[in-house]
Amino acid sequence: MKSTGESPDAKRAKIHEKPSADALLSVKKSKKRTISIAVCASMLENLKGEGSKHRVIAQIARAAAIFRVNEVIVVDDAYKNPGFDSSKDSNLFQLILEYLDCPQYLRKSLFPMCLELKHIGVAPPLDASHHVRMEDEVPYREGIVTRVSLGSVWLDVGLHEDIKIESRAEVKQGLRVTVNMTEKSIVGPDTPRKKDGLYWGYRTRVAKSISEVIALCPFEKGYDMTIGTSERGESILELEALGKFRHLLIVFGGPKGLEHALEQDKALTQVKEPKNVFDKYLNTCPLQGSRTIRTEEAVLISLSALQKYFWCS
Ligand SMILES: C[S@@+](CC[C@H](N)C(=O)[O-])C[C@H]1O[C@@H](n2cnc3c(N)ncnc32)[C@H](O)[C@@H]1O
């Protein structure tokens, strides 16, 4: 191909000049839609060796960023195996997910070094769109409040110097906030998505059971489409459409599958089969050649197989 002599940055800017019809549709849809995934903490159970849990959690975090997942829920599916403390793993899971979602320039302030972060070096970065570089001219930046005085707030937003904004918002030193760089104002963490269709990372929470995952949905009116995943589900090849949704939830089990997590769920004792808990119960990898698909693999496979329904239905 003939070289145009343009710098890579100029080429990139040109590509972004005219978004394709597909990209425009996705941006429009992502303003109104959210995607949540729930993963059972027991998926970490058999992982031994330094940094092995960190590596697997990072795979979940990367899958979430790649597919524009807005919420990652860790299900503390109490396993009765001796020596397995599920809440310890759930807390580690949430910590690593939050650490990786946080822009690099804020990590030192927000995550003091601790034993749980000792092996974080094995985790590849998310490189998500809210992880902006110093030289990027962007409409929003994540920041931390460094000083508050008489209606003025100073923020570290990853630039050479802190920026000063006038704000009546009740903010305290050390708080993480989202900043509109044009209007010089503090906005809600969902504003970049809702107003501009930008992917702005995921929020996290730990739930004690699958029923709690669904009951404590942070989005208005709750999840209106839920999908359980299993090799015993309906083949995705038979799925003609997913239907319209605003808040989609996809749930993944641990080594013993979703059936096990549901058996432990005290609020669902009447429910005999997982397919009765979710709107859809899907096998996203029919004809699998390996006897088992690990949860971290299932997350990538399922999000990839379902992606066309996220933005095109
Ligand atoms: C190691 S698998 C669980 C295997 C377990 N023996 C069972 O019978 O379900 C862990 C999780 O990966 C997901 N998974 C595995 N295979 C899948 C498939 N073919 N389609 C969709 N999800 C799958 C499910 O969420 C499952 O709970």
TrEMBL record:
GO terms, molecular function: methyltransferase activity
Transmembrane segments: none
Record keywords: Methyltransferase, Transferase
GO annotation, biological process: methylation
Gene3D superfamilies membership: 3.40.1280.10, Nucleic acid-binding proteins (2.40.50.140)
Taxonomic superkingdom: Eukaryota
Family recorded in the similarity comment: Belongs to the class IV-like SAM-binding methyltransferase superfamily.
PANTHER family associated with the record: CLASS IV SAM-BINDING METHYLTRANSFERASE-RELATED, METHYLTRANSFERASE C9ORF114-RELATED
Protein name: Methyltransferase C9orf114
Naturally occurring in which organism (per UniProt): Galendromus occidentalis
Lineage, uppermost ranks: Eukaryota, Metazoa, Ecdysozoa, Arthropoda, Chelicerata
Gene name, Swiss-Prot/TrEMBL: LOC100907238
